[in-house]
Amino acid sequence: MSAPTYAFKGPSAPPSSFPTASSLRIGIVHARWNTECIAPLVKGAVQAMKKAGVKEENIVVESVPGSWELPAGTQRLITAGQVQASSNVDDLMGATSLLDDGGNADASSQSSSKASRAAFDAVISIGVLIKGSTMHFEYIAQSCCEGLMRVGLDTGTPVILGVLTCLTEEQALQRSGVGEGAGVHNHGEDWGTAAVEMAEKCNRWGKGKVEAGGAKNYA
Amino acid sequence: MSAPTYAFKGPSAPPSSFPTASSLRIGIVHARWNTECIAPLVKGAVQAMKKAGVKEENIVVESVPGSWELPAGTQRLITAGQVQASSNVDDLMGATSLLDDGGNADASSQSSSKASRAAFDAVISIGVLIKGSTMHFEYIAQSCCEGLMRVGLDTGTPVILGVLTCLTEEQALQRSGVGEGAGVHNHGEDWGTAAVEMAEKCNRWGKGKVEAGGAKNYA
Amino acid sequence: MSAPTYAFKGPSAPPSSFPTASSLRIGIVHARWNTECIAPLVKGAVQAMKKAGVKEENIVVESVPGSWELPAGTQRLITAGQVQASSNVDDLMGATSLLDDGGNADASSQSSSKASRAAFDAVISIGVLIKGSTMHFEYIAQSCCEGLMRVGLDTGTPVILGVLTCLTEEQALQRSGVGEGAGVHNHGEDWGTAAVEMAEKCNRWGKGKVEAGGAKNYA
Amino acid sequence: MSAPTYAFKGPSAPPSSFPTASSLRIGIVHARWNTECIAPLVKGAVQAMKKAGVKEENIVVESVPGSWELPAGTQRLITAGQVQASSNVDDLMGATSLLDDGGNADASSQSSSKASRAAFDAVISIGVLIKGSTMHFEYIAQSCCEGLMRVGLDTGTPVILGVLTCLTEEQALQRSGVGEGAGVHNHGEDWGTAAVEMAEKCNRWGKGKVEAGGAKNYA
Amino acid sequence: MSAPTYAFKGPSAPPSSFPTASSLRIGIVHARWNTECIAPLVKGAVQAMKKAGVKEENIVVESVPGSWELPAGTQRLITAGQVQASSNVDDLMGATSLLDDGGNADASSQSSSKASRAAFDAVISIGVLIKGSTMHFEYIAQSCCEGLMRVGLDTGTPVILGVLTCLTEEQALQRSGVGEGAGVHNHGEDWGTAAVEMAEKCNRWGKGKVEAGGAKNYA
């Protein structure tokens, strides 16, 4: 659409800076089907978050097999962050953490001493579904979206829907920013920015702080 | 339809006045996609609420990236109002509010000393979805509506669905009141009035007060 | 279908009398869109309930703007009845009711001293949706039905679905009993009877009483 | 499909006997629309349960107006059984049962001294929906199925879906076992057997007993 | 799709080993309709889990009549494992287990002294739905998927969707690995591997352990 001009001030532009980004911790859970799209989408999200000021070490990337597993993976990863946050408190109290037992070498946040162990401020759930000959696409897409909405509302942690629901492979590649042309755009970048914005806003709302005076823009 | 005439009195007309409007606090959460429609829709809602008697400073306007984020934004904004309301109580009790720490200059309701800090009486959730070539439209629309219904029923705070689900851009512009013609109508005005009505009725119902004698109109 | 005859007794006919109807309290919440259908539908429901023995003063009629608001209105009206019922108890205990503060002249059940102040035994939710050119119809209908089902199961109060989901205006008028012809039938009458039946049965089930011996009819 | 033969043992056949059937108590809730199908379906379910060993007096048959009311009816009937079960306990403790007040002559399980008053082990919810000219079919079917699934998962009591969702009357009659021909099969018989099987298995699982060694059949 | 090459490291490959598999306990609940597909699908899942290191005696296989019953069966089987796990604790405390009363010879995990009695780490729910002439397929598929998603999120136990939703028998056979050709693949194998992966990851997340440094792969 071509943007009309208004006699009123109208909605504020998207946030151009994220003052608290450097202290945010954000998770990504991605499925692995259609990896040729998943890879650039995850990269787009990571790069957008880093550009917004999120520290690379505070971005956690985990995978699940397919999009059906995204809601459970997102729910459990949010829980993992809460467990870590409460075990941090234990550390401060001098308790010996039982959580170090049986840790996998490649799966411990302790490997980076600078990384945040706070609860996640947002999670991006990334998957790519492409219509096939059965009804699998429809039921997975419906269940996945419904599940992710539930997890976001159950936990109060913003969950960004990073799931492409495409009818063709070409549509999926274009939305992953693969190839050239007017229709090519990496949606992962949008999801990364949305995660940082929602993380900041939900943190602010949680403190009882709301935008004042916004209705004046529509006078 | 042409309205028939009835031998019975029939349903009461929509409320023509809103006695408690000046004390209501109402939130608007809007997505930013298709801003050329969002802007007039938000304006329509704001103007209708002011016309109904809601004070401009008691209308809070916040935005989220897209319609997927509307349910979470609505849920969190309702929580924000409840936190503010309970922190008001703290103030009266002489407690030092911890909520002032780290406040953003542009995001503090303290900037207007007259503005209400009560819990929100209703929230209008505004977004504009237009059918594209993938199935994104269908899954976002479904998830968004389902999530907003859940938030309204979970919280007991009336949530007004201000989401256009259009097949063409022209449909969206017409329903945003942009352009001229018989089909052009700013739906935001309806949402604003609906929010005030539902706020008043839900407040009344919450006090155990119901309309008596209404069945006589159908005798 | 033409009804076949059975060698077994088969299902019992619909109840022909409602022994407890005179003590039931039933709410109607209706939307106001397509009022030319809403009015006769509400009348049909009211008349059917009165014919079944429900007292006119024990039928409460409230309205909300549109069908989206039906689940919240139904939920809140059920709550209103529970508040009234518990405030009755307060009265008996000699407490001064705070609920009388700020009462609206037209919205107080005290205006009829004979009217029940008990919790509602059932609520009928009435709306008329007609397919338009956008997808508004589909998402409102889906959300409304899902929300009303939730409210009924959450509260344990029977909620009758009085929502027409029509593809044409003619279909809506016919099902509202407007006009003449074989296809014309006021569905509101069915909803009224269904509300009384469900109210009685749910009250009975709530006391642990079930029909005994019904399986003998299928021997 | 023609059944292939396997080099492995494969899934066990459906249960051929039901050792605990004589002590089970099972409810049927049926709608009354399209009674010419409902009647044989309920009979099919009753007969199949009796054949499996359920006592006729332990099968409770109740009706609701239409399929919309099935989830609420099923939920409330499950509650009724729990109330009865707990009032039995009261009786053993010598308490005077308040539940006998206002009992209807035709609606008291006391009329059969041999009938179980335990909580229901399963409920079969039976309705017949046939596509009409509006969207009523789709929204009722969707809401009914979703509601019945919720009731089963909320209560832990197995709920069998006995709802036909047909596009023509002929389809409904065939699936009710009415008429002759290859396509004619009374689905009620399947529902009856499924209810007994699920009742036994859920009772067993509730005791922490699971089939051991089943994976050997796939070696 | 042909896999592009990336200038960045990209997502990690699926796990090639499962260090904790030998201590996992995994349930399979399968429907029995279309057994010619169910049998190879269950076998594929069992074989894949054994290949990943799960012990055969720690795989429990149970059946329910049809796909409608899968969510309830999955929920109840998860409960069964929790009951067993807590009764193990009782044993250690010297309590006499009441759970042995009335045990069926073929349905007791005691028959294999080596088998785990821990809570299930994951459950695979397997069914095969094929489109017929009524709308049964659509409503069962929708309810089944929605119910399984709920059970997974309610319990925190990963539930793998092993439900084929096919438009033709040929599609179902191909996805069950029956026959020959490029399109033939036993999806049960994928489900088995997914169950082991999700079991390990959810156990790890539950301990507050997350992958560190994953965002570096997208630099």
Automatic annotation (TrEMBL), chains A, B, C, D, E:
Which CDD domains does the record cross-reference, listed alphabetically? Lumazine_synthase-I
The record's InterPro entries line, in alphabetical order, gives: LS, LS/RS, LS/RS_sf
First-tier enzyme category under EC = transferase
Gene3D superfamilies cross-referenced by the UniProt entry = Lumazine/riboflavin synthase
Provide the catalytic activity annotation: (2S)-2-hydroxy-3-oxobutyl phosphate + 5-amino-6-(D-ribitylamino)uracil = 6,7-dimethyl-8-(1-D-ribityl)lumazine + phosphate + 2 H2O + H(+)
Q: Which UniProt keywords apply?
A: Riboflavin biosynthesis, Transferase
Q: Which HAMAP family match?
A: Lumazine_synth
**Per its UniProt record, what NCBIfam families does this chain match?**
lumazine-synth
Q: Please report the name of this protein according to its UniProt entry.
A: 6,7-dimethyl-8-ribityllumazine synthase
